[in-house]
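Thread title: Can someone regenerate the structure for this chain?

I was given the following input by a collaborator and told the matching structure tokens would be attached. They weren't. Posting the sequence so someone can regenerate them.
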Amino acid sequence: MADKPIRVLVADDHPIFRDGLAVLLSSLPDIHVVGTAADGVEAVELAVRLRPEIVVMDIQMPNLNGVEATRRLATAAPSVGVLVLTMSEEDSTVFAAVQAGARGYLVKGAEQEEIVRAITTVAAGGAVFGASLARRIAEFFTAGATPAQVPFPQLTAREREILELLAAGRSNAQIAAALYLSPKTVRNNVSNVFAKLQVADRPEAIVRAREAGLGS
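Best answer:
Regenerated them for you:
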């Protein structure tokens, strides 16, 4: 048992999950929840001010996603450990979180004991990744690649493909025809790209993409 409770901040944009996890963790003698955050900006601000030992961080959040929030915390509060708890098992998301400085990565649906064990391990300076994620991370780095070589690693392969066509000046209809997708699927993916890149509109997304070498 820890001599004193581990100070934890919970960051998730879904209030039911966020508050439920906070209540669950608060009920444990070895954990003290110091606060909750509804988006990445609030997570960074609270973590810098409250200095928890651990931030349990979702990835898909408004205003600032969990990957970018983790990256900012690595600079602003390097002593704070980030444990990602999210829905995505996409390789690009996992690698982006690791590159940003996350010391643990669990998928929502993990058992309470697994979450608590991960918090305890990360607080002690360790790293925690599920067995399948750890294997994929090892294979990725053994192959000689690094996340930095992939532009916008927070995007899925499909979203990056669509961004490439956006940067080339294609309309949604042209993208749908080129990729054999429905217009609705393209619209949804474009919206996801905007959210993940933290851009307001299509021209801004195109500028970001072209600066990264896409659309040539």
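Residues 183-197 form the longest helix (15 residues).
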